[in-house]
Design a protein that fits this description.
heterodimer; A: alpha/beta; 13 strands; about 15% strand; B: mainly alpha; Histone, subunit A; 4 helices; about 35% helix
Chain lengths: ~475, ~110
């Protein structure tokens, strides 16, 4: 049987004791197992851990303990978080079979809330990609069309949630890895402000860009998850002391008069026409909710991509230096070609003779970009853009669109709208906004001010209360 | 497909990476790459490094570099010992057999010839 209940329905059923956490976990596990051969969304499905956690959740509710609304809800997690006693691979053969001796803070927090881990999701190895094709466990298939990519790097999380193998997911976003698959699979995905959620135990890709965030069917669901996972953590010195708002309570805040900035650099004729039409229609809908649209300019954003890649490749070359087959994992000959390319390029940007020309310039460029966003936020509350320049493309198919010598750049260029949020540190949300003629989902992206997740979630929630794109599900 | 991307690609400057440079970089990154791999990498790296070289076009006079976005300078915690992994747990991920409670590592010091 399939898990058909929504997040909110499941909370009510658990509260009213009409359904147990064990029953819910069973439904999610069945769905995860029955769809995995078609979608390849999971690297690990852990029935025993799930049922143990579900039993604990049922006991906690039965004992009369005042529990989080998440208590007993099944969820899925990108395989980039270390989970004590549960295999963790980061999508790479280097960590195949690795069983961590400790847990990521986000996993600890979800265990405290009583949520039930169903499994660990397939992804681009180390987060290195935007399609979940670039890994050692085979590509993730898009549930809306299995010949197409699910997006990435958190593609497995998105595919699993789209078919109801969990009620929410924890993914990771370094340059679009939550928002991209959310848009390709018709989910709501939140890239949080850098430092909003602890990164402790998140296997590092690029440490000054990595963020931990939720993905779910609706903004309301993401708001509930955020209340459980956000906040300062002494184990992550870069996490913020900023107070955690009651995100669910703020969902209904007035949007009247809020200003949406539309950067002209993001809405050129180059954008896929169907995506452009859908995104423009969603912006008009936001206008009807009382918000104002205004054109803005972010002149340095055209270099945002180059700035981003110099810095993240440098950081990943450093972070992946730890894989030496001494303390854990296999040796460095097991990295994929894509990971090797990123390590070498990062090493190049940091090496003597090139540091000033690449790494230092990119760090200065990052300052300029931060400044441009800060100036824009003097005039606007949020900044809108598409999530992806095109809808989900055929598996292996991005390459056919480019000249042979530029094939290797294609995947990087697909991140054009999502990278800037990570470079600047601001939060950004991907909201289901419609479907193409081929019935492929398209997302709208909204960027907020630092720590303004509640504004983004409120806009997404109120948009979702007047549209039903987010309620559409694939057949699987 | 994204036409903006194509336009950027067609006009971007290329920096050719030599095999010697590539060998040097792979040594720095502790990656031992076979000759056919190096040839393949050379082409894609030339394109990639050309593309990231766009950063050189940004006007940056007087701009301070930033390494992170939080604005934090230091984050202190109380100087007290907190629970940690046991030695067995810490050694549990070792791919090789451990030796008397230690990881076994490659020799790094050698006698001069």
């Amino acid at each position: 049987m399939k898990l058909k209940h929504t997040f909110a329905e499941s909370v009510t059923l658990l509260q009213n004791k009409e359904l147990s956490a064990v029953e819910l976990a069973g439904l999610a596990l069945d769905q995860a197992e029955s769809t995995n051969s078609a979608l390849n969304a999971f690297i690990t499905i852990d029935r025993k851990t799930a049922l143990d956690q579900a039993k604990t959740a049922d006991q906690r509710r039965a004992s009369g303990e005042i529990v989080s609304s998440l208590c007993g809800l099944p969820y899925v997690m990108k395989d980039v978080y270390v989970t004590k006693d549960v295999t963790t691979t980061a999508g790479s053969q280097v960590l195949a079979g690795y069983i961590p001796p400790y847990s990521a803070t986000v996993y600890e927090k979800l265990q405290q809330s009583g949520a039930v881990l169903i499994g660990k999701n397939n992804q681009d190895a180390w987060g290195h990609g935007g399609s979940s094709e670039n890994n050692d466990f085979g590509p993730v298939k898009n549930p809306w069309n299995e010949s197409r990519v699910a997006g990435g790097s958190s593609g497995g999380t998105a595919a699993a949630l789209a078919v109801g193998a969990g009620l929410f997911g924890i993914a990771e976003d370094t340059g679009g890895s939550i928002r991209n698959p959310a848009s390709f699979c018709n989910l709501t995905g939140l890239k949080v402000t850098y430092g909003r959620v602890s990164r402790y135990g998140a296997i590092a890709y690029a440490s000054s860009f990595d963020t931990v965030g939720p993905m779910a069917r609706s903004a309301q669901d993401c708001a509930a998850v955020m209340e459980a996972i956000a906040g300062f953590d002494s184990l992550d010195a870069s996490s913020s002391h900023e107070a955690v708002p009651f995100y669910q309570r703020e969902l209904t805040q007035s949007l009247r008069g809020k200003v949406i900035g539309i950067p002209k650099e993001f809405f050129t004729d180059a954008l896929n026409p169907q995506v452009k039409t859908i995104v423009n229609a969603s912006l008009r809908q936001l206008e009807q909710l009382g918000m104002k649209l205004t054109e803005i300019s972010l002149p340095t954003v055209k270099y945002g991509h180059a700035i981003y890649y110099v810095l993240v490749f440098a950081e990943t070359s450093s972070n992946l230096g730890r894989y030496d087959a001494v303390r854990f994992g296999a040796d460095r000959s097991h990295f994929t070609d894509e990971t090797i390319r990123r390590i070498i390029t990062g090493t190049f940007g940091l090496s003597s003779g090139y540091y000033d020309a690449y790494y230092k310039k990119a760090m200065q460029g990052r300052s300029v970009l931060i400044q441009e966003f800060a100036e824009a936020y003097q005039k606007v509350d949020v900044i809108a853009s598409p999530v992806m320049p095109f809808p989900a493309y055929p598996i292996g198919g991005i390459e056919s669109q480019f000249k042979p010598e530029d094939v290797d750049l294609a995947m990087y260029l697909a991140d054009i709208y999502t990278c800037p949020a990570n470079t600047v540190g601001v939060p950004a949300i991907s909201i289901p906004a419609g479907f193409t003629k081929q019935h492929l989902p398209v997302g709208l992206q909204l960027h907020g001010k630092m720590f303004a997740e509640s504004t983004l979630l409120a806009i997404a929630h109120q948009y979702q209360s007047v549209t039903n794109w987010h309620q559409e599900s694939p057949r699987l | 497909m994204c036409r903006c991307a194509k336009m950027t690609l067609e006009t971007m400057p290329k920096k050719n990476i030599s095999t010697t440079e590539l060998k040097h970089l792979s040594d720095l990154a502790h990656l031992s790459l076979a000759a056919p791999h190096l040839v393949k990498l050379k082409t894609s790296l030339t394109a990639l490094i050309g593309y990231i070289g766009e950063v050189k076009k940004i006007k940056l006079e007087g701009i301070q570099p930033v390494a992170q976005v939080t604005g934090k300078v230091n984050e202190y915690r109380p100087d007290v010992i907190t629970p940690s992994l046991t030695q067995t747990q810490a050694l549990s991920g070792s791919p090789k057999p451990t030796h008397q409670g230690f990881f076994v590592v490659e020799r790094v010091l050698h006698h001069e010839a």
